[in-house]
Every structure is written in structure tokens, then in C-alpha cells.
Amino acid sequence: MAGVANRLAELYWELQAANEPVGLEEFTERAAAGEYGEVTREELRALLQAVEERLVRQVERRETGAHDAVTAEELVDETRAWIADLTAKFCEGR
47-76 burial, b if ≥16 CB within 10 A, otherwise e? Predict the structure, then answer.
């Protein structure tokens, strides 16, 4: 399981560095549809958790270029809520 999730996470971050990055929701939707190979809901959950951890680390290290009006804590909360929504959408009941 971890191997597929790691492969997906690496692919996601590679696509983020591309000229036309793919959003996380679109990427997860494609992964769920099997575009990147067969995946289970646990693998999708692990992917989303890995992305969340990295994004939170970036916020905590102030690597995101966040707007001044948004505190790091608010950004972390928003990130966690967003990932929770994606997890519910793609990992529950599959």
C-alpha cells in the first residue's frame, strides 16, 4: 500500500513543478478513476495524508508565500479541512 501512495505522491509533486500543474482534487479524482494505475481508498487516504503533511510543513516554515492577512495557524486549519473534505469525497465508501 505505501508503495502506491508514495508513487502517487511523487507523481503529484512532479506535476506541481510542471508548466501546467494539476490541482490536488483533480489529481485525486484521476487517481481514483485509475488513470495512474489501480489504487485503493487506503492508498488515496495515504496520498492525501502525505500531501497534507508536506503542505503543513511548508506553512510552518513559511514557504508558501501566504498573504499577510492569513496567519500560519489559519492556513494550517484551512489545509487540514480541505484535505479532510477530499478524504471524505474520495476515500469514504469506495
Answer: bbebbbeebbeebeeeeeeeeeeeeeeebb
pTM: 0.84
51 close to 24: Cβ distance less than 8 angstroms: yes
Interval 11-69: pLDDT, tens? 999 998 888 889 999 999 999 999 999 999 999 999 999 999 999 998 888 755 555 55
Closest CA to 11 of 50, 57, 45, 41: 50
Residue ranges covered by each domain of the chain: 2-91
